[in-house]
Design goal:
Layout lengths: L10 E14 L2 H19 L1 E13 L2 E14 L11 E2 L5 E3 L5 E3 L2 E2 L1
Antiparallel strand pairs: 1-3, 2-3, 4-7, 5-6
Length: about 110
């Protein structure tokens, strides 16, 4: 869903399997940091991540999320972008864990 807010289409060149671990003081911070990293990879490196959250751990006052999947180097044209997301914000962020996980997050566009 994150990429569908920004892109109409992209041409993929190569995929590389990797895992990514991102930590923060709470789940809300981890969500913002994960989405900020994905935003940087897309806009700064031309890379799209396709995968899943493998594990979320809470220990020592810190929350860490491990993502695993493939990173695809892509090619974009100026007309491929729908919206330019400038930042992921903490404004009214919600992480609810009931019958799965529901997250509400706002983007600065």
């Amino acid at each position: 869903a994150f990429y569908s807010l920004q892109l109409k289409r992209a041409s993929s060149f190569s995929g590389e399997k990797k895992s990514l671990i991102i930590c923060g003081p709470d789940k809300e911070a981890v969500v913002v940091r994960v989405l900020s990293e994905l935003l940087y990879l897309l806009q700064g490196e031309g890379v799209i991540f396709r995968g899943r959250v493998k594990e979320v751990k809470e220990e020592g006052g810190e929350v860490c999320a491990e993502l695993e999947g493939e990173f695809f180097k892509c090619s974009f044209s100026p007309g491929d972008f729908i919206e330019d997301i400038k930042a992921v914000t903490y404004h009214k962020i919600e992480v609810k864990e009931r019958d799965g996980c529901r997250i509400r997050v706002f983007f600065d566009i």
